Backbone:
């Protein structure tokens, strides 16, 4: 891990090629929360591709229009939701409709990280061509 941030609505960890966010219990994720993500991406991922991973260990709500804004961040190449909860899997299917980039749900963080590696490699391979 490079660094981490603790905000009123989430805890974010920054790694070389991904962000891992854990939202706080009971919050509602709103489009304005993307302002924080934008600042972090400018600071840590300037012109560098990365994957956003949300580890859903707490119960909270998501306004799905947040993904319309997240998708505008040019170097976000994928979004992963980590949760084995059946309700979260259903919610993720709805959220995916609002995000026009790669968006996947995983039962474990390990599976999400393997997918992240594939996404980074795929992006790198496309840039070479």
Residues:
């Amino acid at each position: 891990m490079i660094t981490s941030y603790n905000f009123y609505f989430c805890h974010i960890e920054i790694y070389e090629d991904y962000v891992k966010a854990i939202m706080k219990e009971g919050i509602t994720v709103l489009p304005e929360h993307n302002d924080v993500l934008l600042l972090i991406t400018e600071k840590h991922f300037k012109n560098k591709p990365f994957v956003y991973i949300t580890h859903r260990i707490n119960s909270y709500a998501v306004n799905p229009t947040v993904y319309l804004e997240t998708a505008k961040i040019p170097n976000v190449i994928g979004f992963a939701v980590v949760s084995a909860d059946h309700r979260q899997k259903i919610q993720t299917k709805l959220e995916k409709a609002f995000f026009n980039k790669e968006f996947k749900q995983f039962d474990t963080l390990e599976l999400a990280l393997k997918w992240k590696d594939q996404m980074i490699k795929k992006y790198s391979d496309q840039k070479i061509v």
Observations:
- The first strand starts at residue 3 and ends at 6.
